[in-house]
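Reopening this ticket.

The earlier resolution said the output was attached, but the attachment link was broken on my side. Pasting everything inline this time so it's all in one place.
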Amino acid sequence: MKLLHISDSPWNMTGFSTVSLNVLNGLSDKGYECHYMGHNFLGQTVPPNPSMLQGGIPFKFTLYGAGREAYCKDIIDGTNYQTIL
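Inline output:
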């Protein structure tokens, strides 16, 4: 199952981004295909593994940067995902 989650970028040290990072890494470990849209991340798409945060915390999901509209509204195509978190 493909999951899409929209949150603060994992590079921002907020409680929301920390929980999101841990939840998506855990779901990826369970076999879900996870995608993370960092609505305040202005970079390019980051593929899963071997991408890591400082301290060795891995990204086990694909991370997408924000689009031109707030909260990635111009990027989301809900037809490709079974669940949007």
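Reporter confirms the inline version is readable. The chain has one helix and four strands. The chain has one domain: 10-84.
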